[in-house]
Structures are given as structure tokens and as C-alpha cells.
TrEMBL record:
Top-level taxonomic group: Bacteria
Source organism per UniProt: Hymenobacter swuensis DY53
SUPFAM superfamilies: vWA-like
Residues of the signal peptide: none
PANTHER family: BLL2464 PROTEIN, DUF58 DOMAIN-CONTAINING PROTEIN
The protein's name: DUF58 domain-containing protein
InterPro entries tied to this protein: DUF58, vWFA_dom_sf
Classification via Pfam families: DUF58
Length: 290
């Protein structure tokens, strides 16, 4: 299993994405939709504006009616990647890997897998300076665009306001939205955005990213915690507070998962210490349910 530290150390996002996906795509099923591919599926009546090259002229000569040959192709859906790039994603695990580093690797690998499956991929990076959005495309250069956007992203500030987020949900387009976030929010703003995205696109896979030192509370002695988004500080003794911290965290994780599922999201918790394989398999399972 390739560790996230190893993939990050490659300092080559395209290579890391390919390596992370190795072995997962073998035998993966491609969903199918009607289109202009090679395998014949059915006829349908001609409509103004249709491509005349797809007309069946022999059938037209026999029936005096115009029909198009519909076929099946292997492009099946739009995958919309949403990466949280607010300041809390700068939190580093004991391995030196930040949540943003892991999120970049994960989004790159998801984009690679989706592209290999024939899907159109889009990317939205959320930060207070405004949305960075690449619309969905399935052309050969889209991966390069996505990799560049991810490589040049830095985490900063708080979650964008509702006016900044409005363009994301203004247009309804069927898609599988995959959000990578630590879900640290002030007043439910991430939950509201994902609820609107689900209404606009249909499906949401929420990948909740946590650092292992948060989950296991590996801190020792007197320590000062700082909220990376507000600057608020909290001083405590790690040994005295470990049990209470872990109890509070586990309750928050249970509540978060329950709320996400009550909104109809597919929820999956990740650790920055885990290989990317689990999240990629979750995507492929969700895609296969289609």
C-alpha cells in the first residue's frame, strides 16, 4: 500500500495520482449511456438539429421516415470534485502531512480514476478569496488543468460566504459531487452548501478528512491549541484532558455522520495517515451503484 507520505514526497501530482490508482481500475465496470459510440443500441425518430451523419438512409428509403441510430458509449456521468481550502486544512499530522496535502492527492487521484472511467470531471476549490472553478470536461487536457489548479492551491481564511457560493448551485446539472473537507465550520455553512449541491446535482459523496493526531490525541504535556481560522487559543494539559477530548470528538463524529446521512449524503471518514485506496474504492462503489 502506498502511504500518503510517499505520494506527497514524489512532488509530482500526476505521477502520485497514477500510482495511487494502480490496481484499482483493473476490471472496473464502465457504466453506459446512449450516445454516438460504436455499439448499436436502438433507433429514434429524427429531430431538427440532429447530426445527419447518424441517419439510417436505408431505413428511410424503405419507410419514408427518418430515424437515427443510437449507440452506447462509455462516458456515464459528471464528477464534481469540491476541495475545502480554508485555513483549518493547514493542520498537520505527526507525519508532517497537512490535510490540504492529503486533499490535493486525493482529488488528483479521484480525477485520474474518473477520467479513466470516461467521466467528465470538474473541480471547485473553496476559499475566502472566491471560488476557483473548472467546469466539467472530458477532453485530454482536463487532467492537466486540474493538476495545476490543485498544485497551486493554498489553504487560508474561513469558508466563503453565501454570495460567493451562489454560482455553484445556480445551474442544475446531474453529477456526482465529491466533497473533501474536515467539516470544521462556524454555523453549518458546509452542510448548507452540500444540501444545495445535492438538490442541484443529485448525489453527494462526503469524504470527511481528519488527522490521526486529532483522532488518537497523540499530544503530550502542556499544549496550546489555536483555531487556524479565528486565531482563538486554548491552553490545556494533554494528559489530563485526553479522555474528555476523545469522548467529545467521538460524539461529534457520530453526530456529524448522522446529520450527513440524514441529508442523503454518502458519508465516509478518512485519516491523513491512511492510504488513498479506501476513498478511491468508495468512489468506484458509488459509481457502480450509479
Amino acid at each position: 500500500m502506498l502511504t500518503p507520505e510517499y505520494l506527497h514526497a514524489l512532488q509530482n501530482l500526476p505521477l502520485a495520482a497514477r500510482r495511487a490508482a494502480e490496481g484499482l481500475l483493473h476490471g472496473a465496470h464502465l457504466s453506459r449511456r446512449k450516445g454516438a459510440g460504436m455499439e448499436f443500441s436502438q433507433y429514434r425518430p429524427y429531430q431538427p438539429g440532429d447530426d445527419l451523419r447518424r441517419l439510417d438512409w436505408r431505413l428511410a428509403a424503405r419507410s419514408d421516415r427518418y430515424y437515427l441510430r443510437e449507440s452506447e458509449v462509455d462516458t456515464s456521468l459528471v464528477v464534481h470534485l469540491v476541495l475545502d481550502a480554508t485555513a483549518s486544512m493547514n493542520h498537520q499530522d505527526d507525519n508532517g502531512l497537512s490535510k490540504l496535502h492529503y486533499g490535493r492527492l486525493l482529488c488528483a487521484a479521484l480525477a485520474y480514476v474518473a477520467t479513466q472511467q470516461g467521466d467528465a470531471v470538474s473541480l471547485t476549490i473553496l476559499h475566502p478569496g472566491g471560488l476557483r472553478h473548472l467546469p466539467p470536461r472530458a477532453d485530454a487536457r482536463q487532467l492537466s488543468r486540474l493538476y495545476h489548479a490543485l498544485e497551486t492551491t493554498e489553504a487560508a481564511g474561513q469558508f466563503p460566504d453565501s454570495a460567493t457560493l451562489a454560482p455553484l448551485t445556480a445551474r442544475r446539472q446531474p453529477a456526482l459531487t465529491i466533497c473533501v473537507s474536515d467539516l470544521y465550520e462556524a454555523s453549518g455553512e458546509i452542510e448548507r452548501l452540500l444540501t444545495r449541491l445535492r438538490a442541484a446535482s443529485g448525489e453527494v459523496l462526503l469524504l470527511h478528512l481528519m488527522a490521526r493526531n486529532e483522532l488518537d490525541f497523540t499530544f503530550k504535556g502542556a499544549i496550546t491549541f489555536e483555531d487556524l481560522e479565528t486565531g482563538q487559543q486554548l491552553q490545556l494539559d494533554a494528559g489530563q484532558q485526553r479522555r474528555a477530548w476523545q469522548q467529545h470528538l467521538q460524539q461529534w463524529l457520530r453526530d456529524t455522520a448522522q446529520r450527513a446521512r440524514s441529508h442523503g449524503f454518502d458519508y465516509h471518514q478518512l485519516s491523513t495517515a491512511e492510504p488513498l485506496t479506501g476513498a478511491l474504492r468508495e468512489f468506484l462503489r458509488r459509481r457502480a451503484r450509479g
